[in-house]
Amino acid sequence: MCGIAGVWSPEPLAEGTDARLRAMADTLVHRGPDGEGVWTDGQVGLGHRRLAIIDLSPAAAQPMSDAEGVIHVVHNGEVYNFPQLREELMALGHQFKSRSDTEVIVNGYKQWGEAVVGRLRGMFAFAIWDSRHRRLLLARDRAGQKPLYYTWRDGMLIFGSEIKAILAWPGVPREPDLTAIHHYLTFMYVPAPFTAFAGIRRLAAAHTMVVEADGASRIERYWSLPAPEAARPRPRAELAEEITARLDEAVRLRMISDVPLGAFLSGGVDSASVVASMARVSDRPVKTFTIGFAHDQYDERRYARMVAERFATDHTEFVVEADAVAVLPQIVWHYGEPFADSSAIPTWYISEITRRHVTVALNGDGGDESFLGYPRYTGCRVGAWADALPGPARTLMAALGRALPFETSPRRLLRYARRFLVDADAPPAERYVRWITLFTDAQKGALYGDAMRDCLAERSADVAMVWLGGGAFDVARAAYADIHTYLPDDLLVKVDVATMAHGLEGRSPFLDHELMGFAATIPARAKMPGIETKALLKSVMTARLPRELLYREKMGFSAPIEHWLRDELKEMAFDTLLSPRARARELFDADGVRRLLDEHVAGARPHHHRIWALLMLELWFAMWIDPARPPARP
Questions:
Q1: Which entry of 2, 433, 536, 597 is annotated as an active-site residue?
Q2: Number of domains in the chain
């Protein structure tokens, strides 16, 4: 597990490149304290910062080269099937000097070339320099757990695990990409391949980028999840047996470590299922870690304790108090882009407390997407029934939804019902996009100032529609879109940044590509026969987990920002969003922003997610765009 940085040039690298690479690597300090390395060879320079997980010896240091000094690699992540690949490569005559999974990538490329990427089972972002063919290969894992950013500058390719590393290269500008910010305000995150910085891009999940000696480059997808149409029915008993076997295997592979290991335990189905599997294959109590809040509707500690007690785990809890928002400067700096998912705060704190005890933590990420766990998937199923009604009936339902006063109801089910009814007359795919939208086009039109107004010509919905199209819309297609957008660009960014900021490696068994691929072939009707989310996985797990945990209302892993923005954070929000500096940007109409704040504080309408997005955006501008130099770590 490491941070990587590098540069490719069509001409021989200038004198002083080593120092520049070290400056890039220095931005990755929080990525790992166990060593750094810099290596240059004519056209290419590679920088690295190590967090040692497998083979703690100096033999596993990076950049790593093969025995002949032809292939050179920097790697961020873990290859879980490296023992099997190592045996195969040794049988083919390759030599190894370490037990590192990175060396499997080195010799695997020598044996299979670019096809090595398809043989790796794990999470990774790496760069390979083939000095014999003067070829650079960049690759990112299938699910998108490990990030990789790049930019072209004066004919040079500059890349790294973080945008901060790229900005450390002399001459790379820090300018906002307003189109990316326009999309951010739709989704709460910046979707790939955009970043919030003009000219800097994110390599998409499951893609490689190759740069040839003459500067010609190509980006290709090397793996695709089976489309919903590939699903086929199978007996439930067969599905149950294979789900548990594949999950147990994915967990077992992710428990290989030379450092202490534990698990995040939220009290939800997915993390509980992972802990149950860990307990089956571990010869000692599993270390589990839970975070909670004083607000009951956000606190899942009671359910986490059920799992901890059932499997006799070594359990640790931590409560985030309201003043925990003092961590915002750290979050804005580490994420490097505007990021409006408020669950970054509990993720930050659970990563911090977990790192005090272990260096690796398994989690339940990916279970909701593969096994249909989000409440909006229930909306998709109900929507399919509503779509069978005559058009006038659906129009009446939409009018009823707009008239209902449930938008401010403390009962989540009533709020969901109103949101569903409001969009009852929309086409199914468009309706789904509206459910996952933070600011609609109409709301943006009323809020945007002069600087953002031209962005209204770009339809953010098209980012999701790329994945929602291609056939009849149903709940499987919605999950397929989420796997390619929300999962890699929001959830996995959130966890990777928060864990790596504390020198903690997060591993996600549900994101094992073999398990994901299998789950994709299960029909949606089998995963969710009615409106019960994650029904198949819950039924499979009844033999391992308490029914009270499995069949309770889903809470989600989020922070009580609705309350904070009416109380502890109210003054900060008003002062920040209506400051002279924020007004001078002309991104938003100040009266429109004030209206959002006033309505939320008064309880007239819940705008907390929108206000949080605006707040995180303004804090990002103040930290990353306004200063003359990139900011130091707070």
A1: 2
A2: 2
